[in-house]
Amino acid sequence: MKKAFPILAVLTALFLAYTFYQAMFVAPTDALQGDVYRIIFYHVPSAWTAFLLFFINFVASVHYLADAKPSTQRAAKWIAIAVGIVGVIIPYIPQVRDWLQTIGMYPSSAATTALMIPALYFVVGKLFRGQDVDVLAVTCAEVGVVFCTIVLITGPIWARPVWGIWWAPGDIRLTSTLVLWLIYVSYLVLRRFSDSAQTQKLAAVLAVFGALDVPLVYFSIWFFRTQHPQPVIGGGGSMDLRMLHVLLLNWMAFLCFGFLVCWSRFRLEKLRREVEEAEALESLEEHGSPVVQSSAKVPLGGGSR
Amino acid sequence: MRSFWSITLATLAKDIRLEWRSKDALNAMLFFSLLVVVIFVFSFDPLAEESRHIVGGLVWIAFLFASVVALNQTWARELRNQVLDGYRVSPAPGTALFVAKALGNFLLVSLLEALMAPLFVIFYNLRVLGPAWQLVPVALLGTWALVVNGTFFAAMSLRTRSRELMLPLLLFPVSIPAVIAMVAATTSILTGEDSAHFYIILLVTYDVVFTTACVGLFDTVLQAE
Amino acid sequence: MNSAGSIKFLYAAYTVTWLIHALYIGSLVRRYSRVRKQMKDLGKGK
Predict the structure, then answer these.
(1) What are the sequence ranges of the domains in chain A?
(2) Is A275's CB within 8 Å of C39's CB?
(3) How many CB atoms lie within 10 A of CB A60?
């Protein structure tokens, strides 16, 4: 492992301990819910982290599919730029601005979020070349599922004491999260069960399907809920500033933690693939044609990089 | 070079002929559909007052299971006769194969539904309280939603281990918004309590989005095998 | 919504979170050691 990793791990652990202290003791007690609401400091950051990871997986999957040919690679780049431009302009259209207000978002936040999309696309393209983009995809999917599982378990644990129910089918956020979890678990199962050389391509296609699906899930539940009003778990509306501060701190800590876990998983996957290639080559040498009887052993890179 | 549609229709005609010749599989699927309905009837009391509220869900779950059985069947034959390899090297566009398969599956699943639906009506003594004609677009759009993704994922599952298990595993999560829409629309129409308009629009959107995605990405999947 | 009883949900949530993270990291450690063993076997030339 790189020298930096243990240092970062210790720093992250300290950061997490600090944010835990903040969550449990510094944030004020909620007037309505008492102390149980503090679950939010683990529930919401896990959700945001999971969504971010799934989004990176989507970007990586698109890269993997698009970069196969130069023409599609160029097209994808232009689409990413177009998304960014459209995303910056649209929040300022009056009707959209009004709608954003109903969900409590400023147009500038929406525009900045929209700019993140092409930014992420280009950053991923620069940093992760060739096969690495697929390693990134599987890493983010796996770690994303871990965080998403936590969201789905802490959600009901929070709901039960506060609203008296474990689950509300009309709860749009938790249900959409459940579907996202299902899609990515099926993604991981596809990866595990598919032995063909083109598993990666199939998985990337599935990720694209998943991304198309999520907005549709959101709208279908949204309309269902308007017909059958349900309690909104997790509460809407604004938050005490001190609570918001602790929430953001916890999110930062979990992002650092998530980053380290992803880094580990990424390196594990790269090592695993190198070993697989080396093993395949070795068995070719043992059972294969005399042509491959080379004396040059495959250099096992990656050991202490 | 024959046109896209002539290739598609020719493939479809061939599939229908083959399916008709080996009526065993078809009969088995019909019987399976009947069994599913019967199991539901025994599990969910048809005499209860609220049965009209849950029948929408039951019907579509039954259709979902029947679809999965049908979808698993139709690609198996291609694989057995290495037809896929032939397709890959032919100049025919992969999308023609996909559309043909999807249409064939659509016809097959519609046939199964045509058998199951009257059974539900009989066992549950259904009287439609809302605009009954709306059930037709809901059935068509909903079936297409299941079949178009089902055909695509069945093709994706072909080279995986536990192929028959992979199909529902991949299909169900992605189908959830369509299932919500189908069930809610059917329930709205049966009970006459709400309007099904939004759900029908949602189904149309779903069908357009995923038909485009499937047709666009099928060549990637075909070449990937 | 009695706060005396509901506090245990808070503890449960935090515990479950770290439990899941621990399980996942544990699986990573296990997979790492397996890969290292494979690398050693390769290096020795089975």
Answers:
(1) 4-28+35-67+130-292
(2) yes
(3) 27
